[in-house]
Specification:
By secondary structure, this protein is α/β, with parallel strands linked by helices. It contains three helices and five strands. A hairpin with a 5-residue loop joins strand 1 (3-4) and strand 2.
């Protein structure tokens, strides 16, 4: 279930919810690798922020072109990978 909070804040608990929420425009998206709150060790696991970043790059939604993406995760390597994926597609990510 996608949760809506004050000031148009949206909280998603998994990759599917996040992808569904991306149909709306946002000024800022803070994207975590560990969306479900669990530490995922396998890069090929589906339910994570990298999946969402790859969806954004593949879908290229025009309404997210001016969105700023901040990647937060406890895994530096995966954070760098997510930022790289978004930046290569010319999204503002750090």
């Amino acid at each position: 279930m996608i949760r809506r909070w004050y000031h148009n804040t949206v909280w998603c608990r998994n990759a599917l919810e996040c992808v569904q929420a991306l149909s709306e425009p946002f000024d800022l998206i803070v994207l975590s690798y560990e969306l479900s709150g669990e530490w995922v060790t396998e890069l090929n696991a589906y339910d994570n922020g990298l999946t969402v970043a790859m969806h954004i790059v593949q879908d290229q939604p025009k309404h997210l072109r001016t969105t700023r993406f901040i990647v937060r995760t406890s895994d530096d390597e995966r954070a760098k990978l997510m930022v790289s994926v978004l930046q290569k597609a010319r999204y503002d990510a750090e």
